[in-house]
Hints:
The complex is a heterodimer of chains A (184) and B (195). Chain A is mostly helical and 184 residues long. Chain A folds into two domains: 22-101, no CATH class; 105-184, no CATH class. Chain A is 71% helix and 3% strand. Chain A contains nine helices and two strands. The radius of gyration of chain A is 19 Å and the shape is globular. In chain B, helix 1 (2-19) crosses helix 5 (95-103), helix 2 (25-32) crosses helix 4 (75-91) and helix 5 runs antiparallel to helix 6. The N and C termini of chain B lie far apart (39 Å). The chains are: A mainly alpha (184), B mainly alpha (195). Chain A: Keywords: Cell inner membrane, Cell membrane, Membrane, Transmembrane, Transmembrane helix, Transport. Chain A: InterPro entries: Sulf_transp_TsuA/YedE. Chain A: It is found in: Cell inner membrane.
Amino acid sequence: MVLNWKFGGVLLGFVFFLAVVLVKPxxxxxxxxxxxxxxxxxVNAELITQNDDGAYTSSNAYLAKSKGKYAKSAxxxxxxxxxxxxxxxxxxxxxxxxxxxxxxxxxxLPAIWYANYGDTPIKRYAVVFLSGFIVLYGARLAGGCTSxxxxxxxxxxxxxxxIFAAGAFAAAVPVAMMMYKKEG
Amino acid sequence: xxxxLAIVVGAAFGATLDRIGATSPNxxxxxxxxxxxxxxxxxxxAIGTGSILMFAGQMAGIVDVMHMSVKSAYVGVFIGGLLLxxxxxxxxxxxxxxxxxxxxxxxxxxxxIAGGLLGAAAYMMTYPSWKSSGLLDGLAGGKVTxxxxxxxxxxxxxxxxxDVLGIVLGGVFVLVAFLxxxxxxxxxxxxxxxx
Lengths: 184, 195
């Protein structure tokens, strides 16, 4: 059961508005980089370093770009954007629990996968792993994802948000139609 | 204080994504295969609502224009959009809905996160080649909005008032949300059907 689109849409729009009023527009995909950098710095302490003037930088060019802002976030994980994503998970967990959680069938395989490919969890995990890889590779290349570019971006009338949405739907619609012939 | 806001707004965002069906690959894929546009209507209405509230708030002086954060436009945005779109449709997850789906107990969403962390790391490694390719260089001024927003640190693509344009476009998003049919292709379970 999902919320009616009129109520759900206004609610979601209000959350995006609240984020801009209070702090800044919502974005998620950067935090995958931040988590990678946190882990990377544990494995190799040379990854993130601090200059004499206190500014953070990195031996990785991507983390060092824009005056080391990613390096700084990874060195200080208790920052707004990282905590925001952790809080999203808590919010989704509580929301899901409050409506009784999702069924054990859904936990294992989404219905739409089952309808098209049967009980093939290994195949599903392979597809999803590869998808996760290209989704985040693409999001970092684009500089944002569905939240940051498409929703926050188009809401602010930014040109990049429209370019991103055009690319995302141009690929997503044919792929979804080809891969999922049955609705589930 | 900022951390407290991160917790409150983040939790509200995660819970809302869960309630509108965005954490379910079933709803995402029904939308992307144009079979059931209920979620599309929700998202369009959300963008419109957010846009109208934000720009009206700026005009009324309630919303700080400096809170806007506009991303740069470059060729890589389109290429990255294509990549993300393909994986989004194949899995039914995007970065935000993927982490929320994992938290709600979907096992495959944890696999998505694992793939995502590797993909993000791969981009970190390959970033210098993208940078030197010129595909990350700003187009049409880079960080631009469609109109010129008074007091913003970003240029406008057009000279017209960016906040008025923002409200008008917000209205267009709302209108499209209302006009769009729930279903374009075939027939199947209606929006109220449980998964």
